[in-house]
Specification:
Blueprint: H1 3-10, H2 25-28, E1 33-46, E2 51-65, E3 74-82, E4 112-119, E5 123-126, E6 132-133, E7 138-144, H3 150-163, E8 168-177, E9 183-186, E10 193-194, E11 205-210, H4 217-227, E12 233-236, H5 249-255, H6 257-262, E13 267-269, E14 276-278, H7 283-286, E15 301-303, E16 308-310, E17 318-325, E18 338-346, E19 355-360, H8 371-384, H9 393-401
Parallel strand pairs: 3-5, 7-8, 7-11, 11-12, 12-19
Antiparallel strand pairs: 1-2, 1-4, 2-3, 4-5, 4-6, 8-9, 8-10, 13-16, 14-15, 14-17, 17-18, 18-19
Helix pairs in contact: 8-9
Amino acid sequence: MAAWVLAACLITDSLAVAEQPSASMSELASSPFQVEVTILSVETRQQTSQLTSVWHRVRIERVMAGEGLKPGDETAVVSQVRENTSGVPVPGSSGDRGPFKGPGGLPLKGDRARLFAGGSTGTLKTRSPNGWQETRRSVAFVAADGGSRGDESMSMLARLVSEAGVAAASMHLAADDDGRGSPGLPSVAGTTSLTDHHGLRFADGVVLCMQGCTLDSNPLRDFHEATHANLPLVGFGPSTRAFAYPAGPAAERWNERFARERFGTITTAIERSAKLRILPPDEQAASHPVLKGVAIPATGIVAPGPLERVDSLASDCRVLLWGVPADIDPAASGPIREPLLWVRELPRESGLPARRIAFMTLSRPEDFANAEVRLAAAQMIAWAMGEESRLSGERRAVIRRAGIAPSPAGPNR
């Protein structure tokens, strides 16, 4: 018997057989080991009538976090599957429930999977109860900008990143609480809730197009879980003005601090010009993955505008694109120049990858009618998710050819 299988016979687990709610993605993202693996073999051992140890022998294919591991390494992974035999349905998970077809929803031999775990390089211990995940990331798009057509823009970007293989996308639209603690139907004018706000907790990253929201406690809790730490975050347009709570603790925490802490600044719209001009990036900015393949002529690109006035950026923000009013000569526009697209990487505890954040002040469907703006926006999301390598030249060409796809008529219109 292989040593790693023999070890399974010696390990006991004192965890109770209580139901466990699935960990949010923010919680999983704090795991010391985050890897993609191929399953080489699977062994199971019944420990009690309600507890089974499942051992996977795996080959490491990709390391997102985990000192001492590298692609090509082989190691063991132990998961505990706990069964509730009371016959009474209890909300939550029971053991490491994943989307796979093995014991307890765990992977089978030959499967490719993403793993969040603790333990050591010799024996990884799966983060319970949902430390096994599909390899494809998921990204949640929040469109709640007071009817400024962010739902159309975000739906278009969601389709592009999904079709490009960057991540599976979900849409979360503005809504208002129905009075019973649940969101009602999508509503352009909604400010207090979001559709399927609980689903935000289980996305690998979040993309925002928000303005003037006053989220109630339940949706705000889920929003906070998805955006406060650990996970990639991308913002568009008015999202530095995402909240508009009346004076009080909520206003102090969310109206301005949210934008400054996440995006590194706040912005205000200025009507200097009906249109703005996107200036070509300098050589250093052009080399960033967000602008790979983006071609901006020396005369710039004219977009519908208006130009946003950006307050002083945090020192760790890196501006990739600048804009000026379209009716002013770029060569003479020095002090009027404003940041249009910037990125930041926030360091995390030892061994964990930096948190990636990106922001673009544009958000209207007409802005994304331009192929270069559209490509930069899609690559912002891919970069933040750590999936920029998935955007090959062919996939960039598809994004360039894509037109604006307005949201179908429905309750949000």
